[in-house]
Amino acid sequence: MNRKLASIGVGCLLAIATIIFLYPLFWMILGSFKSNAEIFNTLIFWPREWTGQYYEILLSNEFFPYLTSLANSITVSLSQGVGATLLAAMAGFVIGSYRFRGRIGLLALGILVVLIPAQMVALPLFMWVNTLGLFDNVFGVILPGLVSGLGLLFFARVYSQLPSDLLDVARMEGASEFRIFLLTLPLVKPFLIAFGFAHFVLSWHAHIISMLILNSEETRTLPISLAALYGSSLNSPQAVLMAGSALGMLPLIAVFAFAYPQLKSALQEFVSQ
Amino acid sequence: MVSVSWAESVKIWISSQQDKIYYDNMVRLYQQEVDAGFQAEVQAFGFREMPDKLAIAFKTQTSTPDIVQLDEVFFGMYLQGEAPFVDLTDRVKAAGLDESIMPQRLELFSLGDQVLGLPQSLSAVVIYYRRDLFQQFSLSPSEFKTWDDFMAIGEELAAQNQPLVALDPSYFGMLLRQRGGHLFSETGDVLPDFELAVETLEFMGELAQKRIGLMPDRSTIFDPVFFGGDVANNEILAIMGADWYGLDMIQQFSSELEGEWGIMPLPVWTDEQGNPNSVRTSTFAGQGLVIYKGSDLIDESWEFVKFVMTNREANAQRFLQGNSFPAYKPAFEDIRLLQPQPFFGYDSMGQILVDLAPEVPRVMMNPKRPMAVFMIREGMLSSVMYGEGDARTALTRFKDQLDGGGGPPPGVN
Amino acid sequence: MQRSLSDRDWPSWGHIWLLAPFFVFLSLFWITPLGKGLLLSLESDTLFGESTFVGWQHYRDLLADSRYWRAVLNTAVFAVSTITITITLALVFSHALRFCNRRIQGPLVFGLMIPGLCPPTVLALLFLLVFHGKEGLLNRWIVQPLGFETINWLSDPDFILSAVVIQAVWRWTGFMAFFLLCALNARPKEILDAAKIDGAGFRSRFVNVTLPLIAPTLTFCLIYLIIDCFAQFAGSYVLFGGSGGTNDAGLLLVTYAYQKAFIGGGFGSGAAVSLSIVPWLAGMLILVAMAPRHVWKEGSTR
């Protein structure tokens, strides 16, 4: 009885929360059908007429090549999501599972990077990427994003908690360190996926560095292209911005839809280990 | 072959997609009329991003553009130390532009006696009023001769719970300039006419306290929500704004009020005897074109800039596409700019602006100007409104912060 | 056996190869620019042309700058409130989510994460409507029904910082709930069952069993939020466009660094503000990293 009441209460709480949290998505989708005046009237919720014209404008590349920007964003975020997770897990494995001289120093160095506000490094990083000849090149954005101090800290923690029996067996058999690292991957799969997803999202919205490095329309990522549409001369329909952003959510939904079930089944394994 | 044409193409940076369309057209027009071999690459970035990107480009001297379209408010930002823009003084003289462009506007894009950019807009300030609501309250624009009249009519309206005007922090600078005051003196002093500034801010405070002026949300009339809320709900009868404000924002965000707007000059200030002692307009912001000093294509860039500034069609299109009214005097005679506009109830914005043009006040450029405008916009008025000090305290703090910590110390380089 | 490595041993080549990619990229793309940034903060604010070496001048100016201290104070208040509220809410949500039907759990989690997934430019527009002083959603649906006067969230200096906190909480609660849910699900069942059999109540199970088990994730969440509060610009930028709001009531350290560099045109003093954030941040991180250590050691499965 008590339990039933509790679950009703929980259900209500979650329902209300979800409405509050889902609001921007609804608003954005509805906004992609509204005129500028409608978007900025707080009292209008539904669009006056359902017209696909703003999606047509968007996809007709009148303002910028939408699909190119979208593809660039996917390339950048996928490479960073996978790459950063891998690099951080490799380093985190060593730092988290072993004790050795300089271990704390390395960890501190990795975390130091996290502390630096992006706009502070922006200027020198921009010069440096230029020197490397990666200006206006997606690699100029991808490569710096492969390092995540937060990821290092996260995986160091994860590995320090991993039961060591299994690894000891492999070690007895004389497996190389890299091989042992590969063996641990299935064990920490939920953490890999969770972190990979978080990093994917962060790099999807990354702004300052991409803005500086990606110059031409062909290399720009979605947020950069959309930002050029926003807040400029207000003659451009903001619904196009909404339409672009709404469609831009699809890859995020896809990545989540992929990650979530994996995460759940992986969690079961983790628990039963 | 591709790389050759790349090297020769003039890079033009602007801050909006809408203007990109304009400049793409102008490049085409220039190719048709002047130089068929002219190559240009027009790039648009966000309104706030472009200035940021430009600062980094200048600081690092990499991937710099040749021509930049900049708002005067951002222009000052790049003047810390050596100016990164080509000194156009001699070229302007040689082309006779010092005669044909409104001198006050040319001065705005100058530092000392160097002309560093060409102004694209007159940026004369007028009052946009609601015809329908004026009629409803039996008001006529001719009643607003002085700011005293304005205050008196405002009080009557306030008694009926109807605010007269939207308040915005930018009015402080506008009103101060209308009265002959300045944010910076020619020698760089902050608020050289301090008492006038105090009086002006107190005047605005009075408008607010008597509920004659309504401060919109976020205390700005430049937010689209201002139109969706306060304007759409008939909460205000008038807004003060520059030409571009009426051409761009009002038309765009209150399109359903077509025909209900009208335009009138600002009321004048009076001396103690009640005699007018100010002009009927002021000025605020406005775009200009500058050329990067390190460009390899300075001559090509200059020819194009000159073309955009002086070509009849180029000036007309900027107005007709809802961008701005030109500061180039010969364009004042273009009949297309003087047509009555249905949107403004068949008032001719062009005619009113041409009449006011000689009265547009001067503005002294200063490297600290962007920070000053920013500080005014983002807090000075509101802090008076929210009772965090009176006008004098707020302005003293403003002056101190600009003299000291608010901006980089002068003369470091 | 490598296991027996001690603090005095150097890592083996096998380890170095695994560490190398991360640290090579780190030095290449972050430490090098950081060094350059440090040099920049010692140079004059010249934007174009030769700048001169001014030593610690910018840092000395900051110490005497009242706006800087205002920014420090605001940032601290902002960070502490945001983190406390977000983590508490996220813990509540993640527990609540475990009650849900497995099939709708996924969509619910995703729904909660939406604010963190939406593009900042769209949020910028949305916030204008949510925080609107008269007809804003917050006023219309929450403040007025509760019988209060409408609040001008974005210009009343008493409420500006609250608006910044609200948007940060709203953006990140879902994300944190997601991570905590993963951590809760990953708790070994035997340990939970054992605690139940021992007759431990919810509170005692939470403090003694759950907390130590989710400590690594909790640390991750805390650090994520600390970094967002101190170093990420997005939140306050979308609300105030780089300003500090009325009377600097919402001026954060990152905002101030932005103003110095981009609006004042002084990259040297901007870099100094940015770098001055590092010790503050490091202090908070050390607190967080140290505090739970003894907690999770006890609960560790090892």
The whole-number mean of residue pLDDT values of chain B reads 88
The general outline of chain B is: globular
Distance between the termini of chain C: 18 Å
Task: From the alpha carbons, calculate the radius of gyration of chain B and give it in angstroms.
Answer: 22 Å
Low-pLDDT segments, ≥5 res of chain B: 1-7, 405-413
The percent range for helix content of chain B is: 40-55%
Oligomer: heterotrimer
* Structural classification of chain B: alpha/beta
Shape of chain C: globular
Helix content of chain C: over 70%
Number of helices of chain C: 13
Question: How many DSSP helices of chain B?
Answer: 19
Strand numbers in spatial order across the main sheet of chain B = 2-1-3-12-6
The total beta strand count of chain C reads: 0
Could you give the count of β-strands of chain B? 12
What's the overall average pLDDT of chain C, rounded? 80
What sequence of helices (H) and strands (E) makes up the elements of chain C? HHHHHHHHHHHHH
Low-confidence stretches of chain C: 294-302
Please give the structural blueprint.
The complex is a heterotrimer of chains A (about 270), B (about 425) and C (about 300).
Chain A: H1 2-31, H2 36-39, H3 53-59, H4 66-97, H5 103-115, H6 118-131, H7 138-142, H8 149-160, H9 165-172, H10 177-184, H11 189-205, H12 208-213, H13 222-229, H14 238-272
Chain B: H1 2-8, E1 10-14, H2 17-33, E2 40-44, H3 49-60, E3 67-71, H4 72-75, H5 89-94, H6 97-100, H7 103-108, E4 110-111, E5 114-115, E6 117-119, E7 125-130, H8 131-136, H9 147-159, E8 165-166, H10 170-178, H11 194-209, E9 213-214, H12 224-231, E10 238-242, H13 243-253, E11 261-264, E12 287-291, H14 298-310, H15 312-320, H16 335-338, H17 349-356, H18 369-385, H19 391-403
Parallel strand pairs in B: 1-2, 1-3, 8-9
Antiparallel strand pairs in B: 3-12, 4-5, 6-12, 7-10, 7-11
Helix pairs in contact in B: 10-11, 18-19
Chain C: H1 13-40, H2 57-63, H3 66-99, H4 102-117, H5 120-130, H6 137-143, H7 160-185, H8 189-197, H9 202-231, H10 234-240, H11 253-263, H12 267-290, H13 293-299
Helix pairs in contact in C: 3-7, 3-9, 4-7, 5-10, 7-9, 9-12, 9-13, 11-12
